[in-house]
Amino acid sequence: MATSISATGFKGGLCSSFHGSWGTSMAGEDHTMLAKSVPSHVRVKKPVRLQPMMKNVNEGKGLFAPIVVVTRNIIGKKRFNQFRGKAIALHSQVITEFCKSIGADPKQRQGLIRLAKKNGERLGFLA
Prior knowledge:
two-stranded antiparallel ribbon, 4 helices, elongated
């Protein structure tokens, strides 16, 4: 036996002693007023998505950080990043040649490159 609930009570096989309303009824004027107050459609903006950034935890710290910041401000961010990229690539090549000369395997070479990056962060070269 199906039972449904309405604003005025139960319909179906069950009886209810409640025959009143809860303050205001939802019939007639109240219902149309409520329907008019609710917008028929809602616009949702695209969520703002921040670009992922690799941040240096030691930014602004380190012995060489002030020199790096001043240089970046003088020559501009784009040119500075190009220069820094070339310097990092050159340093990685030096580490690779060193590893070849001592017979270190690629895993040790990668470890040395990571160590160089950590040292550069601590010293402020990546500020």
